[in-house]
């Protein structure tokens, strides 16, 4: 039984690392569609992890959040983002204030900060799921980092979604998720905010002929 | 005593004999993705046989380095074939070196290829050589870090010991998973496959490895082509037998080797299929984007080592 639990928690650790790899893919790629694919893949892995956690812990409301994750984060949001990218006719390149290599190294540093910051906590945990907390905080911080450094409005949405993924995974792996009603609220928030931001992106494009958020400074007159 | 004779011969035969087949397999799968029927699986063997029968043309300005290069490249790859565990976790040339020697033997072959590409004075050769050296200067640290992570976890740089130790793992640990991902990216760069280099074209804008070997012909070209096939197979073997060594024979019993051989074929075939998928679904990246790809691999390898130290 003990062996069984250790193997399964290591599965969750490996899934967490795969989420981290998807996040690094999101940072390192130069194409917007690949960024959206990275988000969809990470959400799918997140859904797998939460399904396994639900099965192991026997808390059934996590199954519900797993299902909602699959529907909203893996299908609806990526589909909507692809739709916006097509509708706005964005060029494929991602633009950033930092060079790609530099932003890659910075996010590597951010991930290490997350590991060092959580080291005192994970020392006291049992052997189960040692990588989950640092990785979820790392994903949150990297999402924040992309929101700061990327120029386009769509990449900002993706940064926000990464932060939300990280927080969701932190709650899931440390305390088996938040109460169901809170999570439903969060999902609804995310869905609505992505749709509103999508429409907003479209309006920015209509007004400035570009979705570079640098143009928003021109609002000050 | 028999072990000392049989195992090296077996490894050389498997690596040298199977490597053109792997190339043919990848080409065939890619042709099927493009809705073509594709050439036979054995086409690379026919190509090699044809090249060995042809005369070699050597530039008048070429020095002895040009003639020595095919042999140096081929022999360095053959030595590597003796340094990695293939069918059995025992390594024939275990006493001479470890994974660091493997990495530097790859570097030796590449160094001589780059020299010979400059030797004939052809413009394309020099361009290919400089590109190859640029890429390898970024691929090598990433490869070393990801292999060193495995070495640190298992407490040995000896590939035979690493394979033995990895046999006891039921599931890859997160840190090993990160270095597996890093090594997979590096292998694509080292073997000159599509997101980094296009192995099928002689178009001057894209070529790296093909540019270097443009001046070779006849049996010299055959040796270099064969060596590059073997390099791909050996890199895949290192990946498979250090990270997923399940089913590899520990001793030298006949049934164990048979089982190990079939599992080896299945695992290598799986990774070759993955390479074919990657090559069919991605375009070659621009030369100035390659540091980006290899930087990703480097970051993954660094994270692998540091997470191992922090968490465990």
Automatic annotation (TrEMBL), chain A:
Signal sequence region: none
Compartment(s) where it occurs, according to its Swiss-Prot or TrEMBL record: Cell membrane
Keywords (A to Z) from UniProt: Cell membrane, Membrane, Transmembrane, Transmembrane helix
InterPro entries reported for this sequence: HyfE-like
Broad class of where this protein is predominantly found: membrane
Membrane topology: Multi-pass membrane protein
Domain of life from the UniProt record: Bacteria
GO cellular component, one term: plasma membrane
Segments crossing the lipid bilayer: 12-29, 36-56, 62-85, 97-116, 128-145, 157-178, 184-202
Stated name of the protein: Hydrogenase
Organism name: Candidatus Brocadia sapporoensis
Source species taxonomy: Bacteria, Pseudomonadati, Planctomycetota, Candidatus Brocadiia, Candidatus Brocadiales
UniProtKB/TrEMBL annotation, chain B:
One Gene Ontology molecular-function label: lyase activity
Pfam families named among the record's database cross-references: NADHdh
Subcellular location, principal: membrane
Protein name as annotated: Formate hydrogenlyase
Listed transmembrane segments: 6-26, 62-87, 99-118, 171-189, 220-244, 256-278, 290-311
Lineage of the species this protein comes from: Bacteria, Pseudomonadati, Planctomycetota, Candidatus Brocadiia, Candidatus Brocadiales
Keyword terms: Membrane, Transmembrane, Transmembrane helix
GO cellular component: plasma membrane
Coiled-coil stretches noted in the UniProt entry, renumbered to this chain: none
UniProt source species: Candidatus Brocadia sapporoensis
Membrane topology: Multi-pass membrane protein
Protein localization: Membrane
Record InterPro entries: ComplexI_Subunit1, NADH_UbQ_OxRdtase_su1/FPO
